Amino acid sequence: MLIKMLIGLLVLLNSYVTATTTYYPENQCGDASQGFRLEILSAHNNLRGRLARGEIEQDDGSKLKGSKTLFKFNYDCNLEALAMAAIPVDCSRRPAIDLSPLGRSQNLAIVAVTGDPSKIPILQATVNAAIFTWADRLNVDLLKNPTYTNKRMAPFANMIYNQSLSLGCMGYYCSAGAKTAIVCVYSDIPKIGAPLYWDDSNDQKGCNKTSCEQVTDVAKPKCDRNAGPNQGLCGTATKILTTTVAPPTTPSSSSKSSASSSSSSSPASSTSAKPTTTTKPASTEAMTEEIRNKIITMHNYRRTIVAQGTVRNGKEGNPNCPMATNMYEMRYDMALEAEAQAYADTCSTGPSGVQTSGENVYHSPSTTISFFDAVVKAQQSWFSVIYRNGVNPKMKYTRFLEQKDDAPTAFTQMVWAKSYKIGCGVRRCSSSTFVVCRYSPRGNIYDEFIYYTGTTPCAMCLNACKDALCPAPSA
Fold first, then answer.
1. Where do the H-state alpha helices sit in 113-266?
2. Is 398 exposed, middle or buried (0-12, 13-18, 19+ CB in 10 A)?
3. Which domains does the chain have, with CATH numbers?
C-alpha cells in the first residue's frame, strides 16, 4: 500500500507571495507538491537570511556573526529524488540510505501527527516542527567563530553551510503510527574543522552591492536587498558547486559590534534600563529547594493550561487563548538564579532592562511576608493580567501589545514557548519584598510568536509530550 505523501502545503504568508519570482522553486518535479516545496524552501531561506543579517540569537542573548557572502538556497528536483529514496517509509528514526558517499548531507525529522494530515494547520505544524528541531541544534561554539567543530550541530550546520546552494525535500505520512517523516537533502556536506560560512561583524546586515561578486565559481551572483526574508542573501542560478569556493578575496569593511538588535528589544527595557550589578550577591539564604520546586510547579502548570487552550484571553466573555503546539516544559537553572538574586539584592524599583535573558519583577508591599509566599504571589500577579488584558489571537509579540495599558508582558514571558530555563531571587528591602525571575532563552521579542498555535498541543514535539508540554532541550 502506498504511503500518503504530504502535498499541497500552505498558502504562503503575504510576505512570501509578494517576493520576487526567483525566490520560488520551479514546478518541474513532476507532481502537485509545489506548496510543500515552497514552504520548506521559504523556511530554510528565512533562516539563512536571519543568519546573514546577524539576527540568530543564542540562549544568552548573544548573536551569531552575520555574513556578506551567504547564498539563498535554490530548489533541486534531483536532490528531492534522493530525499524520496532516503525517506524511512516506516517513520523510523534512521534514513533509509546514507547519502554521504554521494557528497550530500541530509536532515530527518519524525513528527507525531494528530488528526488529518491534509489539513493546513496540521501540515503547517508538521513542517514548522521539522525546521524547529533542526534549527534547535545551534551550538554555543559558533559564537566564537562559525567553524564546524561538533557533529551534534549537524542538522543546523546542514541548513546554513555556505557551500550548499540547493536542497530538495520529501515528506511522507505513516498512517499506522500517526507520524510524518520529512527528509531534506543538501548539495554539500559541512566539513569538520572548516568554516560553515564566512563571517563578518555582529551588526552585519548581509550582502551589499559588491560582496557577492567576491565569491568565485558561481554564476552571476547578485545581492538581494529587497525587504523580506531573503534580504541580505546572495543569489545565483548555480545549484551544485564542483569545487570548494574560496573565501572572498576582498576584505569586508569594518563595522562596530552591537550587543543586541533594536528589532529584538523593547523600548521600555532599552531606554530607561539600569545595568545589573556585577558584584557577587549577598548571601541571604532566601532561595530554598521548596521555593525552587514551587516556581517550576507553578510555571509549568500555567504553561500547561495555556497549551491546552483553557485560559481566557482577556476580559470575561472573550474566547480562550489558542492551544500551543511547541510549548517547552521549564526547568530550574542555578546560573539564572544567581543573576536574579544579584538584581534582587539591589532593591531596585523596576526591571533591570537586561538583554541577555528574560525578566519578571514583583514588589510585595509587605516586609514580613515569607519568601515562599512572596514568590507565589509574584507568579500569580504576573499570570493573572491575561484575564484583564488579552493578547492578539495569533499570539504574536508586538510593540502595540507591549505599549498598551496594563500590558500582559509578564504573562507573555511566563508562557514564551522557547523559554525553558528559569531562576529566581528574592530580597527583603526597606519597604517591600522584591522578587526577580530570569528566563532563558529570553522572550518578549518584537514580531516573534509567543508560541505557535494549532489544534493539537505538542504537535511540534518529536516523540514525547507531558501535560501538553514538549521536553526541554538538554543543554
1. 120-135, 154-160
2. middle
3. 4-259 (3.40.33.10), 265-454 (3.40.33.10)
Residue among 25, 30, 27 at smallest CA distance from 42: 25
**Region label for 138, one of left (φ > 0), alpha (ψ between -120 and 50) or beta (otherwise):** beta
Lowest mean pLDDT among 57-66, 113-122, 223-232, 270-279: 270-279
Would you state the pLDDT for residue 61?
67
Burial of 244 (0-12, 13-18, 19+ CB in 10 A): exposed
Alpha carbons within 13 angstroms on the beta-carbon side of residue 172 total 22
C-alpha dist (Å) from residue 396 to 46, 260, 315, 346: 18, 20, 19, 33
Structural contact between residues 199 and 67, judged by C-beta atoms closer than 8 angstroms: yes
Nearest Cα to Cα of residue 161 among 140, 185, 180:
185
Residues 6+ apart with CB under 8 A from 176: none
- 16-52 pLDDT, tens digit each: 222 222 334 544 565 546 777 888 899 899 999 999 9
Tell me the average pLDDT across 231-242: 86
Cell of 158: 546542514
| CA distance linking residue 151 with residue 100, whole number of Å | 14
Q: Taking all residues of the chain, what is their mean pLDDT, rounded to a whole number?
A: 81
* CB-based contacts of 437, cutoff 8 Å, min separation 6: 295, 340, 359, 360, 361, 378, 422, 423, 424, 425
Q: Rounded mean pLDDT of 283-298?
A: 86
CA dihedral 332, 330, 402, 124 (to 10 degrees): 160
Instruction: Identify the pLDDT of residue 244.
Output: 55
CA–CA separation, 163 and 290 (whole Å):
52
Distance CA 86, CA 79 (A): 10
Q: How confident is the model at residue 87 (pLDDT cuts 50, 70, 90)?
A: confident
Instruction: Tell me which long-range contacts 46-52 makes (C-beta under 8 A, separation of at least 24).
Output: 46/229, 47/131, 47/135, 47/159, 47/160, 48/72, 48/73, 48/159, 48/160, 48/233, 49/206, 49/229, 49/230, 49/231, 49/232, 49/233, 51/160, 51/197, 52/204, 52/206, 52/207, 52/232, 52/233
CA of residue 51 relative to chain centroid, distance: 12
- Pick 440 or 217 by higher pLDDT: 440
